[in-house]
């Protein structure tokens, strides 16, 4: 009853089928600021299927000191969720667990003995602080690339200090960093500024991936509503993304 929160005004439409895979969400319960229980994760996974996704890669936060997660523990929790989701009749392929790694005060130490949970055994999803970029980010990203990792920057449209028309974002692209925007940004979920920046990045051809960044049933409801948005549907038709390669 608690998680039957969805507004039935709009039936979800499978517009995200063209992407195939959601490669950024927080549905391993009780490990970060995402799902709080298995029931909530199951409800969200069912919504991902309803709006068109057929695969999902779950990406818990790794952040110092807020979310001091351990990779082996996350893998165990993910396998348990996968078992419980199957028992609950979830009809979406759970193809793996990765991580969303904050480049923060603990990241340099993490690089000394990397155990990154990777997307498709290839990409490492990283994020910056939403408020201020940490000094030395470029060097740490370069170190990752020298170690053979492909780096995806999560939701660049949400960092107000990264000017779309400025040098900084272009440097990141020239450095070979992939960009992933949140689909909910296209509907204004994070505010009009993030929405505007997301569309500008799309126009520049800077976006390789799109993720839902689903945390809970509130995000799931927003996804259901967004699936009825014709402008977003046209974006999915106009641009080519790499989600279906995962």
Question: What's the structural blueprint in terms of helices and strands?
Answer:
Layout: E1 21-22, H1 38-50, E2 55-58, E3 61-62, H2 71-87, E4 93-97, E5 100-102, H3 107-112, E6 123-127, H4 137-146, E7 150-154, H5 167-174, E8 178-182, H6 192-203, E9 209-211, H7 217-226, H8 230-238
Parallel strand pairs: 1-2, 2-4, 3-5, 5-6, 6-7, 7-8, 8-9
Helix pairs in contact: 1-7
The structure class reads alpha/beta
Order of helices and strands: EHEEHEEHEHEHEHEHH
Helix % is 25-40%
CATH superfamily, by name, is: Metal-dependent hydrolases
Which regions contain 5 or more consecutive residues with pLDDT less than 50?
none
Backbone shape: globular
Largest sheet: spatial strand order? 3-5-6-7-8-9
Instruction: Count every beta strand, where a strand is a DSSP E run of 2 or more residues.
Output: 9
CATH architecture annotation: Alpha-Beta Barrel
What's the number of structural domains? Answer: 1
Describe the biggest sheet?
Answer: 6 strands, parallel
């Amino acid at each position: 009853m608690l998680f039957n929160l969805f507004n039935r005004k709009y039936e979800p439409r499978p517009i995200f089928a063209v992407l195939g895979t959601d490669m950024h969400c927080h549905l391993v319960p009780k490990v970060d600021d995402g799902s709080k229980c298995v029931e909530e994760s199951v409800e969200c996974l069912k919504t991902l299927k309803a709006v068109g996704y057929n695969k999902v890669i779950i990406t818990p936060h790794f952040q110092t000191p807020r979310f001091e997660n351990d990779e082996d523990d996350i893998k165990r929790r993910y396998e348990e969720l996968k078992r419980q989701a199957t028992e609950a009749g979830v009809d979406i392929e759970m193809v793996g667990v990765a991580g969303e790694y904050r480049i923060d005060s603990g990241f340099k130490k993490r690089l000394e003995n990397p155990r990154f949970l990777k997307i498709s055994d290839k990409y490492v999803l990283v994020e910056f602080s939403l408020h201020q970029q940490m000094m030395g980010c470029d060097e740490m990203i370069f170190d990752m690339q020298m170690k053979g990792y492909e780096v995806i920057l999560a939701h660049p449209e949400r960092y107000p200090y990264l000017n779309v028309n400025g040098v900084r974002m272009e440097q990141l692209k020239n450095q070979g960093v992939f960009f992933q925007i949140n689909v909910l940004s296209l509907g204004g979920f994070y505010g009009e500024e993030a929405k505007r920046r997301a569309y500008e990045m799309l126009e520049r051809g800077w976006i390789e991936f799109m993720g839902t960044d689903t945390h809970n049933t509130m995000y799931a409801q927003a996804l259901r509503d967004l699936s009825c948005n014709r402008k977003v549907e046209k974006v999915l038709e106009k641009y080519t993304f790499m989600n279906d390669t995962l």
